[in-house]
Q: What sequence folds into this?
């Protein structure tokens, strides 16, 4: 009995790159490139038309980002796995791709050495992260752990004030929310910022985002 081929759709707005990737994959006996796409919209159409096992997705597409395309695929509950193939592997982008629903992440500079393994690994229901992407994920988790530990140094009231300030409330508005005077709010805010080593409101916002204080209002 012949083993089923891994059906792949390639998505990248550069035709030369797609041709190179196709040539790489066509040499493998267990992989079948069933379609290509140069935009997010075309990618969705090809996925619906061909029902592939794997989509290799670029993020920098002309009509909308690959992240949006991944979210659409996940929203439609399509039974396909997605591998991001990107020029960049910075922490924020890797985390965004994973949160959007990707199953793997490979830098384009490593496509010739890692894409085949990524496809086969993800096809088996596992995740594949290039070492650069894996490092980004670990760094993110460690940073969140440190920030969570820092939050433990705050009193409950200091944390509440910090969260509302990060959300954009003024001292007066924060006081109204918590039944405190603006002066008392300023005192709690100053104490919290000193404990966390923060000097500006922009730093408060960044810390609150990373520490998860704003998760309830940032979730779609």
A:
């Amino acid at each position: 009995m012949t083993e089923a081929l891994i059906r792949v759709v390639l998505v990248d707005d550069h035709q030369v790159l797609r041709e190179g990737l196709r040539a790489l994959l066509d040499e493998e006996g267990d992989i079948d490139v069933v379609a290509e796409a140069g935009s997010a919209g075309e990618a969705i159409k090809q996925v619906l038309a061909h029902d592939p096992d794997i989509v290799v997705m670029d993020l920098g597409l002309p009509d909308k980002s690959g992240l949006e395309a991944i979210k659409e695929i996940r929203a439609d509950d399509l039974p396909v796995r997605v591998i991001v193939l990107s020029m960049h592997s910075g922490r924020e982008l890797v985390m965004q791709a994973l949160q959007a629903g990707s199953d793997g992440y490979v830098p384009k500079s490593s496509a010739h050495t890692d894409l085949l393994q990524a496809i086969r690994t993800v096809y088996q229901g596992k995740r594949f992260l290039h070492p650069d992407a894996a490092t980004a994920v670990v760094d993110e988790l460690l940073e969140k752990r440190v920030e969570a530990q820092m939050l433990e140094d705050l009193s409950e009231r200091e944390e509440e004030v910090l969260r509302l300030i990060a959300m954009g409330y003024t001292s007066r508005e924060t006081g109204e929310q918590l039944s405190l005077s603006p002066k008392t709010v300023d005192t709690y805010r100053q104490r919290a910022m000193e404990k966390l080593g923060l000097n500006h409101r922009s730093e408060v916002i960044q810390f609150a985002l990373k520490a998860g204080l704003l998760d309830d209002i940032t979730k779609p």
About this structure: The chain has eleven helices and six strands. The first strand starts at residue 6 and ends at 11. The chain has two domains: 6-137, 153-218.
